[in-house]
Amino acid sequence: MIAAQLAGTFGLRGFKVFVADLDNQATATFLWGTHTKARERLPATVTPMAFAGTQLPDHLLELSATQELILLDCPPILESEPVHTSLLAADLVLIPVPPSRGDVMSSLQAGEFAAKVRDKDNPSMRIAYVVNMMRRGVFHGKAEEDLRRLAQEPVLKSKIGLRAAFPESQARNCTVQWIDSRSSASQEIEALANEVAALIGLPKKRTKGAKK
């Protein structure tokens, strides 16, 4: 969800964006890459690439010549070839964390795994956590506090709430901005996109007339 919404947001800002769907289930491709409506409602290319295997680096290099931003939607299995290749190629690893104690611990482990790859093979890569599916409640707030206290990598200020607009955007093959650009969901995604842009040195919005 976050990969697709960020892709659509940067697409709306004028960037040429590609989402490499590396999950064998290809959920992102099914929801946003195959429907005619999706091409109009989410301005980014979403393509299944789990098949690429050892050829993934070559595909990414080729894509980098024509795309201004490439998002890699990885499977949840850390020790897999697509994840390892993504960590070698990435400028930024964004780890979504639902606000529960178990999810916080597993997400911190994912961050530690990414940090080991960074320290060994990709020293310029940045890692950040983003609180996802946030909701009200003492236990959820405590889980967020634990994440911010224990994380060895930055936890972004932006938080994505558990909002009906996100499953609706799946059903309608669109960005949340397409549903309502003034909604809380849209504001949250826009704020997250601003933080991501700052972390990777990308302008918040593509300058009109700039060469693609």
What does this structure look like?
The structure is a single chain. The chain has 212 residues and is of the alpha/beta class. The chain has a domain at 1-74 and 163-190. It has ten helices and six strands. The strands form two sheets. A three-stranded parallel β-sheet has the order 2-1-3, sandwiched between helices. Strands 4-5-6 form a three-stranded parallel β-sheet, sandwiched between helices. Strand 5 (126-134), helix 7 (138-150) and strand 6 (155-161) form a beta-alpha-beta unit. Helix 1 packs across helix 10 and helix 6 (101-121) packs parallel to helix 7 (138-150). The two termini are 26 Å apart. It holds the Pfam family CbiA. This is CobQ/CobB/MinD/ParA nucleotide binding domain-containing protein. Residues 1-173 form the CobQ/CobB/MinD/ParA nucleotide binding domain.
How are the SSEs ordered, and which strands pair?
Layout: H1 2-12, E1 17-21, H2 27-33, H3 36-41, E2 45-48, H4 56-64, E3 69-73, H5 81-89, E4 92-97, H6 101-121, E5 126-134, H7 138-150, E6 155-161, H8 165-171, H9 176-179, H10 184-200
Parallel strand pairs: 1-2, 1-3, 4-5, 5-6
Helix pairs in contact: 1-10, 6-7
